[in-house]
């Protein structure tokens, strides 16, 4: 199978202590740090972390910063986020209908890993061309809640998208985001997800390392 990447969502961390929260997650066994970039008050009605905060965090960690761009104009953020030290750059397909080829190429030219995300109401077929292109995305993020906020309920009906992607693309990184935790991981893992974003379940736990290892064991079982 494909290797598990467990990515705590820093949206659920204490923003006033972002550097120590990041280190706490990495020392608890996290592979990636999931960074929810909500900065335009347009794509989603929430305001979180942008390039200046990524730049500050990068001075304190060598961790893989898995950036999820919940913005309407992702192209505007490629330069700032690459300079800030982002590792992965995942844009939404709903706002990239006309320029996804340019987005992928620019993300790669800046040394970042391109990914594409889809909202719950977006059909999975919309991302197939991006995976099959000669210059493809490396990851598909299947949203399992409406984007914008942590702590929402996992939507199991999204697993049909994950199964379709896994059947077509045996080695693709397939990420799920929203409502993941010990109670929902088995459904997601058996559908074929290998990159697991988890915010409230990890940060709400007394021992985050236990939740992270439960998530990993389910994916790698
Ligand atoms: C929601 C974000 C998620 C969120 C997940 O828009 O994309 O990354 O932080 O949080 P939980 O795991 O609490 O659903
Ligand atoms: Zn996210």
Report on the architecture of this protein.
The chain is of the alpha/beta class. It has a single domain, classed as Aldolase class I (TIM Barrel, Alpha-Beta Barrel). An 8-stranded parallel β-sheet has the order 1-8-7-6-5-4-3-2. Strand 4, helix 4 and strand 5 form a beta-alpha-beta unit. It is globular. The termini are close together. The structure holds D-xylitol-5-phosphate and zinc ion. D-xylitol-5-phosphate binds next to strand 2, strand 8 and helix 8.
What spatial order of strands do you see in the largest sheet? 1-8-7-6-5-4-3-2
Number of strands: 8
Assigned CATH superfamily: Aldolase class I
**Approximate shape:** globular
Strand content: 15-25%
Name the helix and strand elements from N-terminus to C-terminus, one letter apiece.
Answer: EHEHEHEHEHEHEHEHH
Fraction of residues in helices? Answer: 25-40%
Based on the structure, what is the oligomeric state of the protein chains? single chain
CATH topology: TIM Barrel
CATH architecture field: Alpha-Beta Barrel
Cofactor: a divalent metal cation; Mn(2+); Co(2+); Fe(2+)
Pfam families: Ribul_P_3_epim
GO molecular function, one term: metal ion binding
Protein name: Ribulose-phosphate 3-epimerase
Salient structural properties:
single chain; about 220 residues; alpha/beta; TIM Barrel; eight-stranded parallel beta sheet; 9 helices; 8 strands; about 20% strand; globular; binds D-xylitol-5-phosphate; binds zinc ion
Structure at a glance:
The chain is of the alpha/beta class and 221 residues long.
């Amino acid at each position: 199978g494909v290797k598990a990447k467990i990515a705590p969502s820093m949206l659920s961390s204490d923003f006033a202590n972002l550097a120590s929260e990041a280190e706490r997650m990495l020392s608890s066994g996290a592979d990636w740090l999931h960074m929810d970039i909500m900065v335009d008050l347009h794509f989603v009605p929430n305001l979180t972390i942008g390039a200046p905060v990524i730049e500050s965090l990068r001075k304190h960690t060598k961790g893989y910063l898995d950036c999820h761009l919940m913005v309407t104009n992702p192209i505007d953020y490629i330069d700032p986020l690459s300079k800030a030290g982002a590792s992965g750059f995942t844009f939404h397909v709903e706002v990239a209908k006309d320029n996804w080829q340019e987005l992928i190429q620019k993300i790669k030219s800046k040394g970042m890993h391109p990914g594409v995300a889809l909202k719950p109401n977006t059909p999975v077929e919309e991302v197939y061309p991006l995976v099959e292109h000669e210059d493809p995305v490396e990851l598909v993020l299947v949203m399992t809640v409406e984007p914008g906020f942590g702590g929402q309920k996992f939507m199991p009906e999204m697993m049909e998208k994950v199964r379709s992607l896994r059947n077509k693309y045996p080695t693709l990184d397939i990420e799920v985001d929203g409502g993941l935790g010990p109670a929902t991981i088995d459904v997601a893992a058996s559908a074929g997800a290998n990159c697991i974003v988890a915010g409230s379940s990890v940060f709400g736990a007394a021992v985050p390392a236990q939740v992270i290892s439960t998530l990993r064991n389910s994916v790698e079982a």
